[in-house]
């Protein structure tokens, strides 16, 4: 960053210094010198495909895999770089081609003020419906960029206490008892585990884990149960074994059955597959008692914050989750975690080739980085 | 502000400068030197009662008056001052004594990080229920303070475009045709007027105004209509005369009648008295098509932003309104106005002894100040 830019940003932030004494403003006429909108260089969006390698094959109710494709994004303004990411697990509709196609259609160079995030996201939304992960990759990069340009971490811009992050769960996929036992022991530093169920080995999975640890467990069925009476019996069985909540117990289309289950369930029933973005939230009232917010589903940090505000008004519990993704998208989600009940932000821990360094987990608890924006730095050169 | 403080704030904001090149962080280990939480001086809350003098006696469906009592607040940290206000029109339950009593109970000196706004407001909320205007006076001062300490106007912290502010309406109270005609002509610079109805002279009021101007009108009945069939007839009559929406047509307790009216009304029906804070919002679905958000009702800027997010998800129209208040509270509300459909932010224009300078109105449109926080400066020394 050259000297002119240095002075420019100092000037932007210097308001903090002079604002303390309002007489400075009143007497100096300083406000006339300032401009309403920030005028930077035209925003420049870059993106590259990347393949995440999973440390272990990952199995849930619907599939098993060893890699996850992503698109890494970067938005640049005045030499400052904001980073974003679209994670594209194969069971979702988006893929590297669809994200590349969508991002290629965007003309962000029409904007030279990255602080107009509401306008820019409105524009992006209007280009084409869907493309939630692609939109998230733009939103995350923009939020990172504006945080860096303000010199503030996102949690501070949102007014949140970085010490109030929850523990994150670590996910145990469906596997043989030997592997499950091994993974559970390896997950020693985590204070809570999330267990994938729904492939007919539910009791075996839980009993295997309980043979190793008595820590609290979250259960994610990924729509795997089909009979509501059996589901309710299983939830009672799980409650006696220290399970905290049940995520997406039945197919999302079985709304009435899920509503019946939620009504009778002694544990919170959390929507995941049943929930994409903001527009899906209000109709869940009465059918679920909680929601799983993921940046890749809802389109990014900005929408996730809106959903948290709406879900709180609905008296819903909130889980913030993730896909397998780098420390980029996970650190972005973690910025909001002081506002949620539960966090399942282990996506970066499941991969072996993370290109960023961001949030850390200390004694099972999420620790937000002391850096502006989403708080990440490149471990290897990406852009 | 002395040199040590200057350097401290420069340091806080300097992240903006170095963040551009992530390698600076990665290679310098700079993040280890920084602290998660900002450590400033203990927050110091001051407040003083003040009496606003109205330019004209102001008459609505329920009462008439010439003054409005307020409490002006100030929260100080490290020599930076954030300003707030509680406006206390006599028809509401709060008054200068109740606000003073509530503010006296607060111990804000336990906080030394004004950026932890969510924590601080949770604490304030927990001290005692109700006291919405008192709480707003704390929230506004805190938001002003954190904006100043970041060197950023609130609209930028919220990601909003300051050029997208709406026109503000100017309110015409119930009065004789001569006075109404006079006031309408004096309101020449406003592109839209808000007309108070509900005292039996509705058609006379509208016809008087229409004899002077054909600009769009908002109508506020302040619960003054009692018969729903007559109300619907009146709304059709008003629609033909260029009215944009109808605010609180009937008593808030008459929820079913209002729902019936909203269903059949050719104009949006906006809740005002029926709506206090966030908790009242979801139950309005189906009964009103819009809401009037006022900082004094909902407890401040932070809650108002949450309500905007929730109301949008409900497909509600949004009006941001105010009480008679100084440029302090009005400028705070104006920071959110790029997000709303309509604004009625004329409270400061109705008083003759404003102590602050903040938002301005140019060609009828709200112009946000180019200053950090809520953007006000003292016109006369208050604290």
Percent helix among the residues of chain A?
A: 25-40%
Shape designation of chain A: globular
CATH superfamily of the largest domain in chain A: Enolase-like C-terminal domain
Number of structural units classed as domains of chain A:
2
**Most extensive interface:** A-B, 74 and 76 residues
What's the total number of strands of chain A?
A: 15
CATH class of the largest domain in chain A: Alpha Beta
Class from helix and strand fractions of chain A: alpha/beta
Named at the architecture level, the CATH assignment of the largest domain in chain A is Alpha-Beta Barrel
What oligomeric arrangement do these chains adopt?
homodimer
Radius of gyration of chain A, in angstroms, nearest whole number: 22 Å
CATH topology of the largest domain in chain A: TIM Barrel
In short:
Two copies of one chain form a homodimer. Chain A has 383 residues and is of the alpha/beta class. Helix content of chain A is 36%, strand content 21%.
What's the layout of helices and strands?
The structure is a homodimer of 383-residue chains.
Chain A: H1 3-18, H2 22-28, H3 30-33, E1 44-59, E2 64-77, E3 80-87, H4 96-105, H5 117-127, H6 132-150, H7 154-157, E4 169-172, H8 177-186, E5 192-196, H9 202-210, E6 217-220, H10 228-239, E7 243-247, H11 255-264, E8 269-271, E9 290-294, H12 295-298, H13 301-313, E10 317-321, H14 327-334, E11 342-343, E12 356-357, E13 360-362, E14 365-367, E15 377-378
Parallel strand pairs in A: 4-5, 5-6, 6-7, 7-8, 8-9, 9-10, 10-11
Antiparallel strand pairs in A: 1-2, 2-3, 12-15, 13-14
């Amino acid at each position: 960053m050259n000297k002119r830019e240095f002075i420019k940003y100092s000037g932007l932030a210097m308001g903090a210094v002079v604002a303390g004494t309002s007489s400075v403003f009143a007497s100096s006429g300083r406000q006339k010198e300032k401009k309403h909108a920030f005028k930077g260089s035209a925003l420049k969006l870059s993106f590259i495909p990347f393949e995440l390698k999973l440390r272990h094959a990952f199995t849930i109710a619907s599939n098993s895999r060893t890699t996850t494709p992503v698109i890494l994004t970067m938005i640049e303004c005045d030499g400052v770089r904001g980073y974003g990411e679209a994670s594209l697990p194969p069971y979702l509709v988006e893929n590297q081609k669809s994200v590349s196609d969508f991002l290629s259609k965007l003309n962000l160079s029409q904007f030279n003020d990255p602080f107009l995030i509401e306008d820019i996201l409105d524009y992006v939304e209007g280009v084409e419906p869907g493309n939630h992960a692609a939109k998230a990759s733009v939103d995350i990069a923009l939020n990172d960029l504006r945080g860096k340009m303000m010199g503030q971490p996102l949690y501070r811009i949102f007014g949140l206490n970085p010490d109030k992050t929850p523990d994150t769960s670590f996910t145990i996929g469906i596997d043989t008892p030997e592997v499950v036992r091994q993974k559970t022991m390896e997950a020693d530093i985590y204070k809570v585990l999330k267990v994938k169920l729904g492939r007919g080995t539910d009791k075996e999975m839980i009993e295997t884990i309980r043979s190793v640890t008595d820590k609290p467990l979250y259960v994610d069925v990924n729509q795997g149960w089909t009979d509501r009476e059996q589901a309710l019996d299983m939830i009672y069985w799980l409650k006696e074994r220290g399970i905290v909540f049940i995520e997406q117990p039945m197919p999302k289309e079985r709304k009435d059955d899920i509503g019946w289950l939620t009504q009778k369930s002694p544990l919170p029933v959390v929507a995941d597959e049943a929930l994409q973005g903001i527009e899906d939230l209000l109709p869940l009232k009465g059918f679920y008692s909680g929601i799983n917010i993921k940046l890749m589903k809802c389109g990014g940090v900005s929408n996730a914050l809106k959903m948290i505000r709406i879900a709180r008004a609905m008296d819903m519990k909130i889980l913030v989750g993730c896909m397998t993704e780098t420390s980029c998208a996970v650190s972005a989600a973690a910025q909001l975690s002081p506002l949620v009940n539960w966090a399942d932000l282990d996506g970066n821990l499941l991969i072996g080739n993370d290109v960023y360094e961001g949030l850390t987990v200390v004694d099972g608890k999420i620790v937000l980085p002391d850096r502006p924006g989403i708080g990440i730095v490149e471990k290897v050169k990406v852009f």
